[in-house]
Design brief:
The complex is a heterotrimer.
Chain A (H helix, E strand, L loop, with lengths): L5 H21 L3 H26 L3 H30 L14
Helix pairs in contact in A: 1-2, 2-3
Chain B lengths: L1 H6 L1 H19 L4 H22 L21 H27 L6 H17 L4 H19 L6 H31 L6 H10 L4 H18 L8 H8 L2 H26 L11 H33 L4 H22 L2 H29 L13 H4 L1 H15 L6 H14 L3 H27 L14 H18 L1 H9 L3
Chain C lengths: L1 H15 L3 H21 L3 H26 L13 H23 L8 H7 L2 H10 L2 H22 L6
Classes of the chains: A mainly alpha, B mainly alpha, C mainly alpha.
Chain lengths: ~100, ~500, ~160
């Protein structure tokens, strides 16, 4: 198998990270913002795995493992907050959540 | 092995006790004070252990210990541990009566305080980016929950959602920065190893720059510094008042501990002259640029925080903006990148903790359960509750940095440290913004003492456990103001 | 190459789609693509975990919540050209442009060694690492997950005492 240079992976992860950032800033649906954040975390994982493969070092892959656990924990908390919010006010649009000024 | 366990014990013990307290909670049934006292004892135990391990720094990290060199021992980490524990105890006392006044006493809050202390001491003990990341996440997730703790109230849940979305966003930047640093240094996560490798010049400075910048951006979110300060006023206003006091003091101190760890390792100030080469020039360039980046963040944070605080009508929101401004002052210590600067940070975050938690406790007492937090609600407080007004006055003077109180020596140390490291302009900005800040701190005192209103406050506030918090905070604010040298010398000896 | 293109495509669909369920599905596709990319990097364990954790757990949770809250017709409001929208695109594209130019113009990494990389990514090796050198973070992650359970209960439990 022909090896792909590490830069390709870095560029790819940079692009995905930026897409995630754009998603967080432009979208107004809390759940889609959350999914954009997941995109960002995934691009970080890709960077880590890319570097880990490049250096033949396992600590990058271990870090990815931890990022995934944290992402799972954040998912649980974030969705719990969304549910609590939805119970009070039937919306997940962050523009309608503005008793406190942004 | 045992030494390893003992020296990292504040982290392990707080984690273990935090989990045990859930069990205590589950089996104690309706008895609410049992959980409370258990939490109190746990915090005190962690505090004692931290004090015990404080002088152990400098001892060699045991080879082949199970923490594998990832946990830093003693020294300044232990001082930060003690800070977190004190913040936890103060919050614990105040939160019980606060929750009773709000008719929502739920025991989970006590265990959350312990979890937060665990996360924060993990940060303070981090010797490795992985531990730092896990610690920041434990702390942040606990804070998201605390912010949304009054889940029947819209403001609280709103605060939690905003905190969560922006916090997770910042985490993305933080770990992307870590990933790039990992790549730049050729697969290192350990702070000391990164610093050592940077000195050899055998790293990729371009990736390091981007990575470091992203890391600083991510951490500056956690201290509520300028580009990412927008969440702070909303979250601090919407969250339960006691949680706000805890988050804005201990949380900030933890994030600053993280910044100290990162900058201490990555911006070494002493170069080996034998290594002068192109790479070392890159290294000094990197250090200067990094300092300028933080200095600019710091200056903007102070100005934005104080100027926005001037126009606020709501006391809690005003304190939130002032907490943004204080993040700016504290970042000056990071900019100076010297022992004086770091001990200034430790001293000031200690003093700041007492005054800010104290101020929030007063806000919480006056808030009762009808959410009165506007400046005009404080009119005539000096007549109905002279003690409360006097204590609030002390906290305000201290926050403004007026001499006999704890805020002054801390600010002084940070200003001097910034001048010493050649950032005189930053000190000038800091002095100007301090002068701006006096306006709104004194404004509150004017409301309490010299204004009359149509609806003066009538009820008196009785004694409760929150009073204990107020008394402790007041005593320490005054003590730190009058005898600052003891703590300063202690801290300086530990770096 | 194909995997990368598909990953970018599905990422764009995720953030551009009006319909949350469609977004979520695109994100699942994205996770599968990334998992394929991990395989090309010889990270077998991570590739498996990627699918198990992200596609299997997190996305199921997300879709479950979307269904539970019945958000299907939520975002009918037009995406108007607000300042935030412009800001987001400008900031995001600037970031992407910056990162890309830097990565492309600045290549200092050698070709990676397939054999060592393959040895690193095995379950055996990672398991060893996780439970010997990284035991403290593992325990701390346990604490983190406990906090999460407590928090999810505090925030979303149906009935409150008092």
């Amino acid at each position: 198998m022909q090896a792909i240079p590490i830069e390709y992976y870095l560029v790819l992860s940079g692009i995905i990270f930026s897409i995630g950032t754009i998603g967080v800033i432009t979208r107004r649906n809390a759940i889609i913002i959350f999914m954009s954040i997941e995109l960002m975390l995934n691009s970080v994982n890709l960077t880590f795995v890319g570097f880990a493969a490049n250096f033949g070092d396992s600590s990058g892959q271990v870090f990815v493992f931890f990022v995934m656990s944290v992402a799972a924990a954040e998912a649980a908390i974030g969705l719990a907050i969304v549910i609590a919010l939805f119970r009070i006010k039937q919306t997940v649009n962050v523009d309608e959540i503005n008793i406190l000024k942004w | 092995m045992w030494n390893d366990l003992l020296m990292g014990s504040p982290v392990y013990l707080s984690a273990a006790l935090a989990i045990i307290i859930i069990l205590v909670d589950a089996f104690s049934g309706k008895n609410k004070s049992l959980t409370f006292y258990f939490a109190l004892i746990s915090l005190i135990a962690v505090g004692i252990l931290s004090a015990y391990t404080m002088n152990m720094h400098g001892q060699p990290v045991p080879e082949g210990g199970f923490s594998n060199g990832m946990i830093a021992y003693g020294g300044i980490s232990a001082v930060f541990d003690i800070l977190f524990v004190i913040a936890g105890i103060l919050t614990l006392f105040a939160s019980q009566s606060y929750m009773r006044a709000q008719n929502v006493e739920r025991k989970e809050f006590y265990s959350l305080i312990l979890f937060a202390v665990c996360g924060m001491s993990t940060i303070a003990h981090a010797n490795n980016m992985l531990i730092l990341f896990v610690g920041i996440e434990i702390m942040s997730i606990t804070f998201y929950i605390m912010a949304g703790f009054f889940r029947e109230r819209f403001t609280s849940v709103e605060a939690a959602l905003k905190y969560f979305l922006l916090g997770a966003f910042a985490t993305g930047f933080l770990i992307y920065g870590m990933a790039l640093i990992y790549g730049a240094t050729g697969g290192l996560l350990d702070f000391e190893a990164i610093g050592a490798k940077m000195l050899t010049g055998n790293v990729d400075f371009l990736y390091l720059r981007i990575g470091f910048a992203l890391l600083i951006v991510g951490l500056s979110f956690k201290v509520a510094a300028f580009p990412f300060h927008q969440w702070a006023p909303d979250v601090y206003q919407g969250a339960p008042t006691m949680a706000t006091g805890f988050m804005s003091t201990a949380g900030k101190a933890a994030a600053l501990a993280a910044l100290i760890l990162v900058t201490k390792a990555m911006l070494p100030s002493n170069f080996d002259p034998a290594l002068i080469s192109d790479k070392i020039i890159e290294m000094t360039d990197f250090t200067t640029d990094a300092k300028w980046l933080i200095a600019i963040i710091s200056a903007l944070t102070m100005l934005v925080g104080n100027i926005s605080a001037v126009v606020q009508k709501n006391v809690k929101r005003m304190l939130a903006y002032s907490s943004v401004a204080h993040a700016g002052y504290l970042l000056m210590g990071i900019v100076s990148n010297s022992i004086n600067g770091w001990s200034g940070i430790v001293f000031y975050s200690m003093a700041y903790m007492f005054m800010q938690i104290g101020a929030f406790v007063v806000v919480g007492i006056i808030e009762k359960n009808d959410g009165r937090m506007d400046l005009k609600d404080y009119t005539g407080l000096s007549k109905t509750n002279p003690m409360l007004a006097a204590i609030m006055g002390i906290f305000m003077f201290s926050l403004a940095g007026i001499p006999p109180f704890g805020g002054f020596p801390g600010k002084y140390m940070l200003f001097i440290a910034a001048i010493e490291s050649g950032f005189t302009w930053l000190t000038i900005v800091a002095v100007i913004s301090t002068i701006i800040s006096i306006y709104f701190y004194i404004g509150l005192i004017v409301y309490m003492y010299f204004k009359d209103s149509e609806t003066p406050m009538t009820e008196k506030f009785g004694f409760s456990k929150a009073t204990l918090t107020l008394v402790i905070s007041t005593i320490f604010v005054i003590l730190l103001g009058i005898f600052p040298t003891y703590l300063i010398d202690l801290v300086k000896g530990l770096f | 190459m194909i995997l990368g293109t598909l990953a970018i495509g599905s990422a764009i669909v995720t953030i551009a789609s009006r319909h949350p369920v469609r977004s979520a599905m695109a994100l699942v596709l994205h996770f599968f693509m990334l998992s394929g990319l991990y395989l090309t990097l010889n990270a077998q364990f991570i590739a498996a975990i990627q699918i198990l954790v992200y596609a299997g757990a997190i996305m199921v949770l997300v879709i479950f919540v979307i269904m539970l809250l019945n958000l299907s017709n939520e975002e009918k409001l037009k995406l108007k050209l607000s300042s935030r929208y412009v800001l987001g695109w400008v900031f995001g594209s600037a970031l992407a442009f910056l990162l890309m130019t830097l990565y492309i113009t600045h290549s200092s990494f050698s070709q990676f060694n397939q054999e060592t990389a393959a040895a690193v990514g095995t379950v055996n090796n990672l398991g060893n690492e996780l439970f010997t050198n990284y035991i403290v973070p593992i325990e701390l992650i346990g604490v983190l997950l406990t906090v999460t359970i407590v928090g999810a209960l505090v925030l979303a439990k149906k009935k409150l005492e008092n």
